[in-house]
User: Fold this.
Amino acid sequence: EPEVTQTPSHQVTQMGQEVILRCVPISNHLYFYWYRQILGQKVEFLVSFYNNEISEKSEIFDDQFSVERPDGSNFTLKIRSTKLEDSAMYFCASRTLSKGIIYGYTFGSGTRLTVV
Amino acid sequence: GIQVEQSPPDLILQEGANSTLRCNFSDSVNNLQWFHQNPWGQLINLFYIPSGTKQNGRLSATTVATERYSLLYISSSQTTDSGVYFCARSEKLVFGKGTKLTVNP
Assistant:
């Protein structure tokens, strides 16, 4: 079964450093997403991406965050200057629409980001 | 905004027991998924079920969109079913707080 792949699985970074979280969505999917889950809390929507641009973003997704699909296969989330409160599990997801049928989301295994 | 409420928040079962998890939602947007988050934090897609009933092995799910709820049935539970079960609703997936399931041997 096709998978969404995320790397790294765990990243530790110092406060103020930039991090890039990487995702390889399923190849024929068209819609891409980032979600995050602070330990013990709900999974929260960050941003959706379609046709090489952001289609929607949440209040969490401020100027410190950016997304990119640099080469047609990777989908990255960049945090420019990490804060302690950015520590969370970050999930990438993708889905597709084909012949009028919307398919469900497929999530990656997540990247656990720890900011120290 | 869209509200998604799950019940119960915690559930403890003996291996072999059956259970029903419930998800109530405040809107009628046509999208609902159930996920299992295992102890390693991975989100596993169980069902994409905007309406009707689906079954996959010991799990089944039913969504009654007109009454704004969905149910997840787990039969003959196993210890590997432990974890947190989330339902999520709407095009950008608004998650509930989850049901934490513990299955004891």
Notes: The mean pLDDT of chain B is 92.
